[in-house]
Amino acid sequence: MTFAPGDIVQMYAPTVGYPKYHLCLGKNDAGTCCFVFLNSEDRGYAADIAFDCARFPMIPKSATNRSVVSISVIIPINDHQLTLYKAKKLGELPKDVAAEVRTFASTVKALSRPDKAFLIQCLEGLI
Length: 127
Description:
The protein is an alpha+beta fold.
């Protein structure tokens, strides 16, 4: 199962018992698909950038009318897990959103230097 950078992906999250949404960044050096979370609540975390839900029409609208791209951690998910979590593509990240996330990513201090460089490189490929 392969996803491309910029794909918005739904996966069943067994830890919470319902689907969660992710932004695919592409594959890391080990060949594993990497993702960041798309969250439905804007809690003001330093590594989150919030958007109006209308900019993510492929995922359900949140109660807060905000969708958050959380770049505090990059999550590698292997092919077996993608199958197990019933991963499916719902759409693609709009280029203007990718540009805003890329600009914001350069200010985030939550990621290691290599992870931050990987994230920025992936986002630049979407612009």
